[in-house]
Amino acid sequence: MDLSQLLNDINDFVWGPVMLALLVGTGIFLTVRLRFLPWKNLFYAIKLIMQGKAKHEGDLSPFQSLMTALSATVGTGNIVGVATAMVLGGPGAIVWMWISAAFGLSTKYGESVLAVKYRETNSVGEMAGGPMYAMKNGIGGAFGKTMAWLFAFFAVCASFGIGNMTQANSIGAAFNSSFEIPTWITGLILTVLSLAVLMRGVHSIGKVSSVIVPSMAAFYVLVTLIVIIVNFKNVPSGWATMIQMAFSTEAVAGGVGGSIVATMLTAMRWGVARGVFSNEAGLGSAPIAAAAARTDHASRQGYVNMTGTFFDTMIICFLTGTVIASSGMLGAVNVETGKLVSGAELTILAFSTVFGDWARVIVSISLALFAYSTILGWEYYGEKSLEYLVSNRKIIYLYRAVFSCITFIGATQTLDVVWNFSDTMNGLMAIPNLICLLILNKDIAQECFHYEKEVVEKEKKGIEVDYQGSGSM
Predict the structure, then answer these.
(1) What is the CATH number of the domain that holds 388?
(2) Lowest pLDDT segment from 106-115, 226-235, 238-247, 301-310
(3) What is the mean pLDDT of the segment spanning 249-253?
(4) 3-state secondary structure 166-232
(5) Is 359 within a domain?
(6) Rounded distance between C-alpha atoms, residue 77 and residue 229, angstroms
(7) Are 452 and 465 spatial neighbours (Cβ–Cβ below 8 Å)?
(8) Fewer CB within 10 Å, N side or C side of the chain?
(9) How far apart are the first and last CA of the chain?
(10) Cα separation of 138 and 385, whole Å?
(11) Which residues, in sequence order, are bridge partners of residue 261?
């Protein structure tokens, strides 16, 4: 067995049924444990996004923190992942993607609460937090510190692959296909842009993300809505097929999917897997950005960062799924290969029903912006994880430079071994993080209920609150 096949087998195991059950199961447990407050307070959480807390300690505003987290989550999964899930799991996969995201709200809330509650200040006065600090300071002992080290190590490894080279490769391939730009030129531009932003640190990442993420999301939502409106006569039947195939106990062919056949278990598997890949709820990455926020209470930032899952999966992924379902292109076969069209090509076909040849340009630009923002966000995750492992600031600056230069390799090379390795590291991050969430569920609940009583209930009544809570250790 060669290395590539070995890594592929390990990856299939890591992202297998047991892991997906643990991810969704943790979300269900926390949702019930928190008395469904993350669901009840979703619109309250959305209103919190623009409420800055400049007088409190932290590196970024709550909005910048969320945008940094979203920059890493809103990526190729929203375009490529959705299309792949609908081909492999049928249209019903979108329903399960949505359901897993609903429970993922509680997971994202919980891990962000712990990130802020147990954060520390590093040697240069920046906030340092995330699952590794929750494990070290919340669980403690040899067990907590061992899990913290493993999580940080897996996160650093994942940052180079899933957070860098795979994204750069998507950009290089998209621009080469749509505009015939050589991949080495794209790689060079990406390296320069990355160096310009990343070498300046978290404040630079926050500022750039707060501009790129809302702009690219608004652009993508606009073009998807145009396609949906034009093809609206097919939308009701598309949604009906999604629901039918999501809960069908027998293998059925989709009305909008033509020859695509899937069972409920297949739809569930691919919907949950691609949903988690897109919104990262439970992986422990987004809380690292949450820990940098200026906030007066861990629970407040927990609610803010929770909205990332809502926007990423429940809005953007759902819109992509509706575009594909209403386009009539799901189940299309590539004439040259004889295989079903999937990934970015399927999304392009769906957009082409309205935009024609411009569809390739629209999807390529969207993919490039999504992927580049992911590179920025994941550099921050990797940097903070490396900072936990080593205290030498020179190594941190070296990491920023190396990370930026590796985008060139990602844009110009196809490295299947690296893809599988990084995907495995990404999955392995979730194991210690989910264990941490389950062990510290009492901490999460206490923060949630106390904040609900002291702040949320009063703010909903219009009472101004200047709460001095347990923002950090």
Answers:
(1) 1.20.1740
(2) 238-247
(3) 63
(4) HHHHHHHHHHHHHHCCCHHHHHHHHHHHHHHHHCCCHHHHHHHHHHHHHHHHHHHHHHHHHHHHHCH
(5) yes
(6) 23
(7) no
(8) N
(9) 49
(10) 17
(11) 253
Say if 471 falls within a structural domain.
Answer: no
Structure tokens at 350: 């769906």
Collapse the DSSP code of 261 into the 3-class scheme (helix H, G, I; strand E, B; otherwise coil) and give the result. Answer: strand
63 in a structural domain: yes
pLDDT in tens, 161-215: 878 888 888 888 888 878 889 999 999 999 999 999 988 877 888 888 888 888 8
CA distance 298 to 308: 16
What does the DSSP assignment read for 36-72? THHHHTHHHHHHHTT---TTSS-SB-HHHHHHHHHHH
pLDDT at 59 over 90: no
The answer to whether residue 128 scores a pLDDT higher than 70 is yes
Residue 120: beta bridge partners?
128
Q: Residue 220 above 70 pLDDT? A: yes
CB atoms under 10 Å from CB of 457, counted, come to 12
pLDDT tens, 387-415? Answer: 999 988 899 999 999 999 999 988 887 66
Which pLDDT band, with edges at 50, 70 and 90, does 69 fall under?
Answer: confident
Q: Which neighbouring-strand residues pair with 98?
A: none
Residue with tokens 């030498």: 392
Q: Which of 23, 48, 32 lies closest to 451, judged by CA?
A: 48
Q: How many domains does the chain have?
A: 1
Provide CB contacts within 8 A for 268, sequence distance 6+: 89, 93, 96, 246
3-state secondary structure of 410: helix
Confidence of residue 135 (pLDDT cuts 50, 70, 90): very high
DSSP-derived secondary structure letter, 293: B
Q: What is the mean pLDDT of the chain?
A: 85
Cβ atoms of 260 and 89 closer than 8 Å: no
Looking from the CA of 236 toward its CB, the CA atoms found within 13 Å total 1
pTM comes to 0.88
pLDDT for 473:
38
Q: Residue length, the chain?
A: 473
Write the burial class of residue 41 (CB in 10 Å: 0-12 exposed, 13-18 middle, 19+ buried): buried
The confidence score (pLDDT) of residue 252 equals 58
Among 69, 85, 59, residue whose Cα is nearest residue 310: 69
Q: Which residues contact 462 (CB under 8 A, 6 or more apart)?
A: none
Q: Residue 125: helix, strand or coil by DSSP? A: coil
What domain range is 243 assigned to? 3-455
More confidently predicted of 278 and 240: 240
> Which H or E element spans position 252?
strand 252-253
